[in-house]
Amino acid sequence: MLQGKVDEAEKHFREALRLHPEYANAHFYLAKILKKKGLLREADLHYREAIRINPEYKQ
Prior knowledge:
Strand content: under 5%
Helix content: over 70%
Low-confidence stretches: none
């Protein structure tokens, strides 16, 4: 059941980024989901984008 919620959240974050590519929160939380799924390269890209948009994520 929890995996279904994670998959649903991933879908929503991807849609948010499709509509608003500069949405740092969506990049950050999508990266967390991807990391949990073992998709480390894609997670790293989203973490980096979140930091580029909002450097406070670096802390």
